[in-house]
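Technical annex, item 7. During the second reporting period the consortium partners agreed on a shared format for inverse folding records so that results from different sites could be compared directly. Each record opens with the tokenized structure and is followed by the designed sequence. A conforming record, contributed by the partner at site C, is shown below for reference.
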């Protein structure tokens, strides 16, 4: 074989060998990347959020505060009522002072039926001035069908619609009060009015706190129910 033909034969043989071998580039498989699969049966569970627990604690704290406010306010009502009762007793003692009793004799005026009409108007303790409502109705000797054996001195007596609320024995007329005594009663009335307003305001505060407490308790129970529905972490 001549040199040219030999060279062509070697080239053809070399090309045939390259064709039979797989390509290093195109025949190589790429590495597959796989995401690790989650283990079967270990699914994530919802956890109770910290904010939810804090909210429950906040509601509980507010509810306790409301309860403490109610118990703190109640003694003030009792104190105001007790002071008003003591003050009213002082008024009763002044209004119902003893009067002069005389046996019936001579001429006298008889009031009937009784000394006073039924019922009494509760004074406006904060504003009334009993000096302007004092009535001097009686002159000479007076009596009533309730006092068949005795009579009284009219100049010692009075009627006052703004003290009638404190008349304890309406079978007897009432002593005429001096200006000093009426001024004292006006001052006592102001104390009574102040105590009544204080007690009323405290009752309003307690009522408001009770409503707030009821709302907080309802919200707390609702949140507790929701919390129980959430599985633990």
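Designed sequence (site C submission):
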């Amino acid at each position: 074989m001549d040199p040219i033909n030999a060279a062509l034969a070697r080239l053809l043989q070399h090309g045939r060998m390259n064709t039979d071998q797989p390509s290093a580039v195109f025949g190589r498989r790429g590495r597959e990347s796989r995401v690790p699969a989650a283990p079967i049966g270990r699914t994530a569970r919802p956890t109770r959020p910290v904010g939810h627990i804090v909210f429950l604690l906040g509601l509980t704290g507010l509810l306790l505060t409301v309860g403490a406010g109610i118990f703190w306010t109640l003694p003030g009502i009792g104190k105001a009522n007790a002071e008003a009762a003591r003050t009213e007793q002082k008024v009763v003692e002044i209004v119902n002072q003893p009067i002069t009793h005389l046996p019936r004799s001579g001429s006298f005026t008889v009031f009937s039926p009784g000394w006073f009409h039924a019922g009494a108007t509760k004074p406006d303790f904060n504003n009334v001035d009993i000096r302007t409502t004092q009535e001097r109705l009686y002159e000479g000797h007076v009596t009533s069908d309730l006092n068949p054996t005795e009579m009284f001195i009219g100049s010692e007596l009075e009627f006052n619609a703004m003290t009638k609320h404190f008349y304890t024995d309406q079978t007897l007329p009432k002593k005429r009060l001096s200006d000093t005594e009426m001024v004292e009663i006006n001052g006592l009335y102001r104390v009574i009015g102040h105590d009544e307003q204080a007690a009323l305001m405290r009752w309003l505060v307690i009522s408001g706190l009770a409503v707030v407490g009821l709302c907080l308790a309802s919200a707390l129970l609702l949140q507790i129910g929701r919390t129980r529905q959430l599985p633990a972490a």
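The mean pLDDT is 81. The CA atoms of residues 121 and 165 lie 6 Å apart. All partners now use this format for quarterly exchanges.
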